[in-house]
Amino acid sequence: MYEKRNRSVVRQCIAEDMLGLMRRRPEDGLVWASSKTDLIEMVHILYISELMRDSGNLPMTFRELVRRACAIVHVTEPCNPNQLVARARLRKGRRMLPLEERYGGMRIVEHGASEGLGMAVDISLYT
């Protein structure tokens, strides 16, 4: 029960942090420095939360969110983001833990210093 509740809290934090990232623009010069799978998994968590809405106040599609996130952090959009999410869900063991378990150890780096955004991804300023 505790683990399930804790996971829910972590997912909510990821969704809120991704919402902050999605407010940025490609011109801000952010570059993704972690795995594309982590990025897409985080976008999927945002998608499930339904926090991002379009102009008609409907939840944005997963594909729209992926396209936008990839543009913001200068990552090539994957052909099949659903496959990346499915593969990420199968992560187990010592080599690669699930995103929720690694979340606390990741960070956002901009201008060479940690930002107080609480976002658990590796991003650097594009030079």
Features of this protein?
127 residues, mainly alpha, two-stranded antiparallel sheet, two-stranded antiparallel ribbon
Short description:
By secondary structure, the chain is mainly α. It contains five helices and four strands; from the N terminus they run αβααααβββ. The protein has helices spanning about 1-20, 35-50, 60-70, 80-90, 100, and strands at about 30, 110, 115, 125.
- The shape, in one word, is globular
In percent, how much strand structure appears in the residues?
5-15%
How many H/I helical runs? 5
* Helix and strand composition category: mainly alpha
Total number of domains: 1
Instruction: For the record, give the distance between the C-alpha atoms at the N and C termini, rounded to a whole number.
Output: 45 Å
What is the helical fraction, as a range of percent?
Answer: 40-55%
H-E string = HEHHHHEEE
Low-confidence stretches: 107-118
Strands of the widest sheet, in order across it, are 1-4
Provide the gyration radius in Å: 14 Å
Number of strands: 4
The overall average pLDDT, rounded, is 78
Could you characterize the architecture of this molecule?
The chain is mainly alpha-helical and 127 residues long. The protein has one domain. It has 5 helices and 4 strands; from the N terminus they run H-E-H-H-H-H-E-E-E. It has helices spanning 2-22, 36-49, 62-72, 81-89, 99-102; strands at 30-32, 109-110, 113-114, 123-125. The strands form 2 sheets. The protein has a two-stranded antiparallel ribbon. Strand 2 (109-110) and strand 3 form a beta hairpin. It is globular, with a radius of gyration of 14 Å. The N and C termini lie far apart (45 Å). Mean pLDDT is 78; it is low at 107-118.
